[in-house]
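Continued from yesterday's entry.
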Amino acid sequence: MYAITGITGKVGGALARSLLADKRQVRAVLRDQAKAPEWQARGCEVALADMDDAASLAAAFKGAAGVFILPPSEFDPQPGFPEARRVIEAVRAALIEARPAKVVCLSTIGADAPHENLLTQRTLMEEGLGDTGLPVTFLRPGWFMENAAWDVAAARDEGVLRSFLQPADKPVPMVATKDVGATAAALLLEEWHGARIVELEGPVRVCPNDLARALGAELGRTVRVEIVPRETWEPLFRSQGARNPLPRIRMLDGFNEGWIAFRDGGRSAIKGTTALETVIAQLVEAAGISL
């Protein structure tokens, strides 16, 4: 039986569906009882747990052949990342108590970045779980292609993709969440010892110009890239409600300046199979746009 946290999200859901299709037993680790019937109907066991509650997590992980950890994302963290530290402490204690056979944890490209930024939350997670004595795989995917969901409306209405990634022709490792979930499922079925890192990106790297072209092709109109000047980021993010925008700004700097990257330039990274065009078509459909 495989215990899956974050099962209601895109990655966790794809992982669970992959395991179920392979006739594996799945325990859905949920925070909300109201979401249990959907997963019970798919044949899953259900365990209720909060990601910062070690006791409930340990009970959910007990007896598992494998556990998937999907840490919650905090996009506007307090200084020092106290939110992430609470989760890490609880997850670590639960794993040590429950002793599942193996663990796959969703990390990120840039978990080994030399400068503090938004992704440092995953650096802390790797540090906290890497010495539990359990077999642990840290899966480091690239930038999610599905982040382009934020660009669909402006592309449709204005023919513009406003990009924080820059310059517009610089390719970035991106990957579809479907491929992340499928890779995590495959990793959970492997056997290994100690802690290891697996990096994952899509079949080809993607620059903002590629995103604009894919959106334009799907929407049937020309879409151009408009670079968002860096000096406007902080007031913009604060106007959107951010209290501590510096970690997000530094993450974007890391991609643009090249210090958020795969260890060997991606030569050892697993390559997903889902094309950017497939993801963009799904995002446009999900937005309910009639062409």
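--- second protein ---
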Amino acid sequence: MLLAGKKGIIFGALDNNSIAWKIAERAHQEGASIVLSNAPVALRMGTINQLAEKCNAPVIGADATNMEDLENLVRKAMEHFGGGFDFVLHSIGMSPNVRKKRDYTNLNYAYLTQTLDISAISLHKILQTCYQLDAINEWGSVVGLSYIAAQRTFPGYGDMADAKAALESIARSFGYHYGIKNKVRVNTISQSPTATTAGTGIKGFDDFFDYAQKMSPLGNASADACADYCISLFSDLTRMVTMHNLFHDGGFSNMGLSPLFLDK
């Protein structure tokens, strides 16, 4: 019961393939009370109500790019919890350019603005809303999900790579300010390629997945393993870990070349 007595908001659970879905289940199993949130269109498309029933959690819709929606969400969550909460998961990402299969050298810049707002700036908006409403309790924890394309070039990942780089920068910068204010820690997790609804929409995803599987000494980290790692970051066991991008990828991020490729 690593999260016994703790309360938190989980953004981004769509269906049972979502990493956020797995994290919500694990948080509930570890004793946390949670509020689930996603954009109104995602609530209509997904099956989040099944998760809500399983976790005994209310669902509060919010467009994470809309400040009024976020303030309403945070205030309602605080009413539900009877005060502040202890953790937040940011599992939000979408690129219209990627969805429409536009090459990185032929971006629609209006779409790029949407990509950055949804996938990165939304973290800043969530943190700023919580900061100004004094919503996250002392020694709370915020985690955003990232990918190694923030540091390395994966051509098929498109403008999502730029968004993940911005996401990680926001976590570092806001991690300083929230740490000073209330000892709240802010980190990102760079997860292995994972067969989520969003992930499989990336051009060449199967190639990403197979490449990482062969390069990683431990193989790719699963969504369930990512959930376990997130729970550790929400718990009191990691109180002094903040402003980091943490690689959860079976060792992929430290590899140069695997003999498995030389043997081909």
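The longest helix spans residues 109-132. The domain at 7-262 is CATH 3.40.50.720 (Rossmann fold). Will compare against the first tomorrow.
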